[in-house]
Design goal:
The protein has 322 residues and is α/β, with parallel strands linked by helices. The protein is 28% helix and 26% strand. It has one domain (34-315): Metallo-beta-lactamase, Chain A. It has helices at residues 2-5, 8-18, 67-78, 118-124, 142-145, 166-173, 175-180, 186-200, 252-255, 269-286; strands spanning 37-42, 45-58, 62-63, 84-95, 100-103, 134-136, 161-165, 205-208, 218-222, 231-237, 240-244, 262-263, 289-291, 300-305, 311-315. The longest helix has 18 residues, at 269-286. The chain binds zinc ion. Residues 141, 143-144, 247, 293-294 line the site of zinc ion.
Length: 322
């Protein structure tokens, strides 16, 4: 209908406007992404998010939701092909000026192509692995510990002591637990043992205690369910706070609107869901800045309540350090 109303002159005018204004040229496309790091200040402390990689989750990993709910929620944010959802793997560096603390190490060589970029991005951010003196683990899944070890089996952070919660250490490194684990879990127990050995053998694997500060203004927080000793870390410096919450949320487009959705990776699904529901309510009310291991890079932002049981994520913006 519209075409019929156009006159020949208008069509000619359109053609003239669309004509190239310069001779054809070649504009190369550089297919390399910019380095995956992002910096911000939290009080007097500098925090750097480090990108390890990203991939997709099949929707059938999510529990307690009808296929219709999953399709509807994901289609809203991911377009017309909601069969899979994107997730990234993020680690975080805390530079206090006296300590360089890495929270989780990324997957190293354990997650396959596209992952294991934490080390490269740490260097790109201006640091050296030898400067890291503490590695804090939220938990011991391979996407959080794989980067601890270099290709030749040595500690990738040669001067670092690795810290995890006592329940997490007990769960994964107990020979008795490993021997009683289901056959499909055996490989995970072996992986944890092998990955932590370069530190444990040198006396550089230690447990932290909930309620006791690791450093002034840096507290471990018990957030169990995803794994038995899953933990977060609250940094509170100069009146500003950020909570590094590990795997409380795997996919922001689903689990903020539906905190009741579990994921197949949870070792205790009910407990993981209760922990998420309680924490989301608390951090939304307290307006706590969040740093998440699997929220789209850099994984830092705020939550606000959207009704009684749902939440919305507002990512932090890019800007100068203040
Ligand atoms: Zn994870």
């Amino acid at each position: 209908m519209m075409m019929k109303s156009l006159t020949g002159a208008a069509l000619l005018l359109g053609a003239a406007v669309l004509a190239p204004v310069a001779d054809a040229q070649t504009v190369p496309q550089d297919k390399t992404q910019v380095p995956g790091y992002f910096k911000l200040m939290v009080g007097d402390v500098q925090v750097t998010a480090l990108y390890d990689g990203s991939s997709t989750f099949p929707l059938n990993l999510f529990k307690n939701a009808s296929p219709e709910t999953l399709q509807r929620e994901v289609a809203e944010v991911d377009g017309d092909a909601p069969k899979v959802v994107n997730g990234s793997v993020n680690s975080f560096l805390i530079n206090t000026g006296e300590h360089l603390i890495l929270i989780d190490s990324g997957g190293g060589a354990l997650l396959g192509p596209g992952f294991g970029q934490v080390m490269r991005n740490l260097r790109a951010a201006g640091y050296q692995p030898g400067q890291v003196d503490m590695v804090l683990l939220t938990h011991m899944h391979r996407d959080h510990i794989g980067g601890l070890v270099s290709d030749d089996g040595q500690p990738a952070f040669p001067h670092a002591t690795v810290y995890a919660s006592q329940p997490e250490i007990d769960y994964w490194l107990s020979a008795e637990n490993a021997s009683h684990a289901a056959p499909d879990q055996q490989a995970a127990f072996q992986m944890v043992k092998r990955t932590l050995a370069p530190y444990a053998d040198r006396g550089r694997l230690r447990a932290f205690t909930y309620g006791k500060a690791l450093l002034p203004g840096l507290q471990p927080v018990s957030l169990p369910g995803h794994t038995p000793g899953h933990s977060g870390f609250m940094l509170d410096r100069g009146g500003q706070r950020i909570l590094f919450w590990g795997d409380i949320v795997h996919y922001s487009a689903l689990q903020f609107a539906h905190p009741e959705l579990g994921i197949a990776y949870d070792s205790d699904s009910g407990r993981a869901i209760r922990t998420r529901e309680t924490l989301l309510k608390q951090v939304a009310r307290q307006k706590t800045l969040i740093a998440g291991a699997h929220i789209t890079f850099p994984g830092i932002g705020y939550l606000r309540a959207d009704g009684d049981t749902a939440y919305r994520w507002t990512p932090i913006g890019f800007g100068e350090l203040r």
